[in-house]
């Protein structure tokens, strides 16, 4: 870590400036100057009285971009180095730096900013302006700060081509790369908008991107959400029909029973923008991607960065967060189990509670309802229990799970993760009942209205039906592809296939969204266990639950017959035909089946292929992989491995989502490893597995949870929606009243 005064600032000395007379007038009499240039603007200007403030490292192209933006807007252009600092000091920046030294230079530079005032201008900051907090706070009061985010390798190349003697203040013994990296923390602190500037991008293109980004920042009307069952053609003019990100995070399920989707689709990244993220950390990639998906009016970039850092900074046991590991041949594992509860659910559920807490109004309490087939329960309990004290007092969560439909360790984990605002309730039924019951509760306006009036409490959802749950999953699919590029396995643009153990269709849908945003994924392989309704559907176009009974398997998280997020995918390939989606899912609910039209099935089969795995093949795969590699797959990853072996064509790499740590399914793993006698105590099972010294090692968080809590206590209720509602009311009374 470098301290702020351990090196001197970088400075590009330029010769272009505005008229010194204009600048002196602006600096000494800003009101008079504002009156002079006010006539230059029309009343419908993009800026109005705001400034566009360009920020970034030396060599980012702030000055050139600023001139172009100013020309396009027909407004004043101000370069802080040339037009403010040198005018104020009556000497060049380099002379000032040599005269006073680095520490005093920063103070003098900050003082100049504090005296500076302008409106309706394009302002290019110096590279070191963001290091002075008071100066930047002053600038932000009347400006939109645009961060020109250029990859460090590109900046280094540009600075080298400019020759070293044009850079002032570089201290011996500290690399230029380290200085640029150090400054990023200050750039990230102040910006309102990020503009990605890939290596060979022209300044004209950067200027257009700046204008587009400012337009997006100024108005959020284009980033509304609709229900998958909406029958409206085009946008309704009714005020209450506009749902923004903050609305869908808190509401979860649409009032008509559908799922929220972005009306304008997902943002697209250019190939160059993706390539600029190849060397970025996981947290940096997450922030860039999520900034494009979440409008700053809902969550400002600075707050989003804070939330992402909180979610992923210390809660994951692997510094890479979601590492990609070579398994064998052309197969790679995306390890999604390094979070605190050992499953891919942690990626969303370490993040979503903080998004939720930021978005909800302070005047109401919220109870989060969750149905889980295994991994979601402990992840959501852990995530919401990590909220700040004040948020835990107004936000609570109840997790409903099939009492006899999860693994013993999963059950112990859900019970052990209970806290003062987080509870688990076992239900004497299967996951499909739990999920259906929650949907019925949400659409029961009498009950939800009663809770609001009587207890001041609203209900919300944290299942993958909540749009915010899908966004973090997009990040790790994109990140996996970028890691393969960074490792030299593929070049950007080369295709990969994805294979995912699939139950509720959320994880594989997120991968499809990543493709829509520009990641070159070729085929999506949907892997099912013996509950293979999705396999049959993808192969035939017929979704048929008639006569099917849920089978309890070793891969319990995908023991699902009604795949909720499939509705979002069908809405997408049906070009937003909400009436068709409503018809299909009403038919499924009332008659137990539906059939896709031929044209939609053809579309679906261009994206998806599917297969399923028996229990015997699942255990055999675990044994085989361990015998040949020393690596232990969990039961869900083994399902995906079996299906991938059958369906891949081996013409490109295939990324298999490893969705949970094998420790969670110790009895099945020990059986697969052909251990004759298995102790029924979950902690003993983990100790036995740890003796194998396998890869990956036993999950630290799971082991600690079991050590601390044992089985504990939890409530169990009958499979009756009215009984669940009674439990909900009681929990609200006990926590909020």
UniProtKB/TrEMBL annotation:
Q: Which residues form the Threonine synthase N-terminal domain?
A: 239-312
Q: Which domain of life is it from?
A: Eukaryota
Q: Which residues carry this modification: N6-(pyridoxal phosphate)lysine?
A: 345
Instruction: Return the GO cellular component terms, semicolon-separated.
Output: cytoplasm
Q: Which cofactor does it need?
A: pyridoxal 5'-phosphate
Q: Which is an annotated Pfam family here?
A: Thr_synth_N
Question: GO terms for molecular function, please?
Answer: pyridoxal phosphate binding
Q: Which pathway is it part of?
A: Amino-acid biosynthesis
Q: Name one GO biological process term.
A: amino acid biosynthetic process
Provide the alphabetized UniProt keywords: Amino-acid biosynthesis, Pyridoxal phosphate
Family named by the database record: Belongs to the threonine synthase family.
Task: Give the PANTHER family listed for this entry.
Answer: THREONINE SYNTHASE-LIKE 1
| UniProt protein name | THNS1 protein
Q: Which organism is it from?
A: Ptilonorhynchus violaceus (Satin bowerbird)
